[in-house]
Write a structure and sequence with these properties.
heterodimer, A: 391 residues, mainly alpha, two-stranded antiparallel sheet, 15 helices, 66% helix, globular, B: 169 residues, Four Helix Bundle (Hemerythrin (Met), subunit A), 7 helices
Chain lengths: 391, 169
C-alpha cells in the first residue's frame, strides 16, 4: 500500500507544526489547514473557469480560450489581472457600505463550509459532531449576501435578480437538506467523517457507496439538482438571466468585486459537490478494491472534477427554466420525491439484506417518479405558449 | 482575571449588542434588518462558544437564513425602504426606558437570587447532537409530533392564503 503518499499532507502538517513552540501548535495547525484549503480551492477555481469555458466552447462548437499560455490554461491569470486592475465602479446612488460588504458576506461563509469536508484519510479541517448541520447553517448567509448585493445597487434589475435568487434559493434549500437527510439517517450521524466511514468496504467489486442503492441514487440526483439551483447555475440561472435582467444582482459590480462573486459561486459549487461526494459517493474511498493504491485525497479531487464535468455538461445542454416552471419543479416534484425518498430509506434500513428490498425500494421510488411526472404534465403544463408584452 | 473564554464572550457579546443597538438606531429599515441579522449571528456564536453546537447551528440556519430574509422581504413588500422623517426617539421614550429598566431589574434579581447561580459551576455536560436526537425521538416524541403537526397546519394555511388571491382572475 502507498501509505506514505496517502498521508503525505498529514505528515507534512505534523512536521511543520512540531517546529513551533508547544503553546502555538494548535493555532499553527489550524492556520496550516485553513491556508491549504483556501489555496487548493482557489487554484481549483482558476482551473474550473478555464475548463468550463473550454467545455462550453466545445459543446457550442467553438474553441473557447486558447491564446494565453499552453492551450489557454493561463487564461485565469489574465482574467485575474484584468479584474484587479479594472476600475471599481460604484453607482452614486448605491448604498456604499452594504454594496461593499455583499461580496465578502458571500465568500467568507462559502469558504467556511469547506471546513467540514473530509478530503482524504485523516484530512478534514474540523471534525464537527454536527458537520452536515454546520455546512447548511453557514450556507444560510449566502442568501443574505445576494439580497445585500441586489438591494444596495439601487438598480431595478439588481433587485429583481436578488428577489428571484432568494426565492429560488429558499425553495431549493428544502429539497437539498431533505435529500441529504437520507444519507444522514442511514449513517446514523451528522458527522461528515462518520458518514464517509459508514461507506467503507466492498461487496465483491462494488463499493458500499450510498449512491449504489435505490434511495441513495435518487438522493444523489435530487441533491445535485438542489445544489445546481442553490449555486444559481444553468438551467437554474434565472437570477442572472442575461437576456431578461442583464446580470441580476451583480449588474452594478465590476472589477475585483465581481470576481469575488464569481469566486463565491464556484466555491459554493465545489462545496456542494464535496458534500454530495461525502454523503453519497463514498467520500475519499476508492471506487474499486484494486484501485486503493491511489491516494485517498486523489480520489476525492478526482470525484470533484468528475462532478464539475457533469455540471459543465448540464450547463451547456439544458435551456433556462421559466419562473413558474422553477417553482413548480421545486414544490411539486422535488419536495414530494425527497419525502418519499426518506420513507424509502427507512424501509431499506428495516427490510434486511436481500433481493426483496432492492425490488421494493426501487419500485417505491420509480412508481411515484413516473406518476408525479404524468400528473404534473397533465395539469396543463404543456400548452401553447402565450406571449404577453408590456403588462 | 480575564481568561480566554471570557475575552471571547466579551467580543461576541459586544458584537451582538452592537447589532441590536444598530437595529434600533439606524434610520433605514433595511439597514436595521441587516444589523439584526448581525445580532442574531452573534447570538449563534455565543451558543457555539458555550459548546451548544446544535442550538448554535439551528440559530444560524433558522434566524440568519430564514427569519432575516423574511423580515427583509416584509420590509420591501410593505413600506418603502426610504428613511422616514420621524425623529428616532418617540415622545414616550422615557416611559419605555423605565419599563425596560424595570424588566431588566426583575430578571436580574430573579436570576441572581436563584439557586442555580449559587451552585459551583458544574462541569459542562457533554451534550452531543446524537444525544439530543435520541432524546427527541424517545423521551420527547410527543411534543415533537405536536410541533410537527402545528408547523404542517401553518404551512397548509400559508399555501391556502396564497392560493385565494389567484381565484378571482
Amino acid at each position: 500500500m502507498a501509505e506514505p503518499l496517502d498521508q503525505i499532507f498529514v505528515t507534512l502538517k505534523r512536521l511543520l507544526v512540531q517546529l513551533a513552540p508547544v503553546g502555538w501548535q494548535p493555532f499553527l495547525a489550524a492556520i496550516i489547514s485553513v491556508a491549504a484549503v483556501i489555496a487548493t480551492f482557489a487554484a481549483l477555481f482558476a482551473l474550473a473557469t478555464v475548463l468550463e469555458r473550454k467545455g462550453l466552447g466545445r459543446i457550442q462548437n467553438r474553441y473557447g480560450p486558447n491564446r494565453v499560455g499552453p492551450f489557454g490554461f493561463l487564461q485565469p491569470v489574465a482574467d485575474g489581472l484584468k479584474a484587479l486592475t479594472k476600475e471599481d465602479v460604484v453607482p452614486r446612488a448605491a448604498d456604499q457600505l452594504v454594496h461593499f460588504l455583499a461580496p465578502l458576506v458571500l465568500v467568507v461563509p462559502v469558504f467556511l463550509s469547506l471546513a467540514v469536508l473530509p478530503m482524504g484519510r485523516n484530512m478534514v479541517p474540523v471534525d464537527l459532531d454536527g458537520g452536515v448541520l454546520f455546512f447548511f447553517a453557514v450556507g444560510a448567509a449566502t442568501e443574505l449576501s445576494v439580497f445585500m448585493a441586489g438591494w444596495s445597487s439601487r438598480n431595478k434589475y439588481s433587485l429583481l435578480g436578488a428577489m428571484r435568487a432568494i426565492a429560488q434559493m429558499i425553495s431549493y434549500e428544502v429539497p437539498l437538506i431533505l435529500s441529504a437527510l437520507a444519507a444522514i439517517m442511514m449513517a446514523g450521524s451528522l458527522s461528515t467523517v462518520k458518514i464517509v466511514e459508514a461507506q467503507a468496504g466492498y461487496t465483491g467489486w462494488l463499493p458500499h457507496w450510498y449512491a449504489l442503492t435505490p434511495w441513495g441514487f435518487a438522493g444523489l440526483l435530487l441533491f445535485l439538482i438542489g445544489a445546481t439551483a442553490e449555486s444559481n447555475r444553468s438551467p437554474f440561472d434565472l437570477p442572472e438571466g442575461e437576456s431578461e435582467i442583464i446580470a441580476g444582482y451583480y449588474v452594478e459590480y465590476s472589477g475585483f468585486k465581481f470576481a469575488l462573486f464569481f469566486l463565491g459561486e464556484y466555491i459554493g459549487m465545489f462545496a456542494a459537490s464535496g458534500l454530495a461526494i461525502t454523503l453519497f459517493l463514498g467520500g475519499w474511498h476508492a471506487p474499486l478494491p484494486f484501485l486503493e493504491w491511489f491516494p485517498s485525497w486523489g480520489w476525492f479531487f478526482a470525484k470533484l472534477l468528475g462532478l464539475l464535468a457533469l455540471f459543465i455538461w448540464v450547463r451547456g445542454t439544458l435551456p433556462r427554466l421559466r419562473m413558474d416552471q422553477l417553482m413548480n419543479f421545486a414544490w411539486k416534484f422535488m419536495l414530494p420525491m425527497t419525502l418519499i425518498n426518506i420513507l424509502v430509506t427507512g424501509a431499506w434500513r428495516f427490510m434486511g439484506a436481500g433481493a426483496a428490498r432492492w425490488v421494493v425500494c426501487s419500485l417505491l421510488i420509480l412508481v411515484p417518479y413516473v406518476l408525479l411526472g404524468r400528473v404534473l404534465r397533465a395539469g396543463g403544463q404543456v400548452a401553447p405558449r402565450v406571449y404577453r408584452y408590456g403588462e | 482575571m480575564v481568561n480566554e473564554p471570557m475575552a471571547t464572550l466579551i467580543v461576541l457579546a459586544s458584537l451582538t449588542l452592537a447589532g441590536a443597538l444598530a437595529a434600533m438606531w439606524l434610520r433605514n429599515l433595511v439597514h436595521c434588518a441587516l444589523a439584526l441579522a448581525v445580532s442574531l449571528a452573534g447570538l449563534a456564536a455565543v451558543y457555539l462558544q458555550l459548546d451548544a453546537q446544535f442550538v448554535g447551528f439551528a440559530q444560524l440556519l433558522v434566524y440568519v437564513g430564514a427569519v432575516a430574509i423574511l423580515i427583509v422581504f416584509a420590509i420591501l413588500l410593505t413600506r418603502g425602504s426610504e428613511p422616514h422623517p420621524q425623529p428616532i426617539l418617540s415622545s414616550t421614550w422615557l416611559v419605555g426606558a423605565g419599563v425596560a429598566v424595570a424588566v431588566f431589574a426583575v430578571f436580574a434579581w430573579g436570576i441572581l437570587s436563584s439557586k442555580a447561580v449559587k451552585q459551583e459551576a458544574a462541569p459542562a455536560p457533554a451534550t452531543t447532537v446524537a444525544q439530543l436526537g435520541n432524546q427527541l425521538m424517545t423521551h420527547y416524541i410527543l411534543p415533537l409530533e405536536v410541533l410537527g403537526l402545528l408547523l404542517t397546519s401553518a404551512l397548509i394555511g400559508a399555501v391556502l392564503i396564497a392560493m385565494q388571491e389567484r381565484r378571482p382572475r
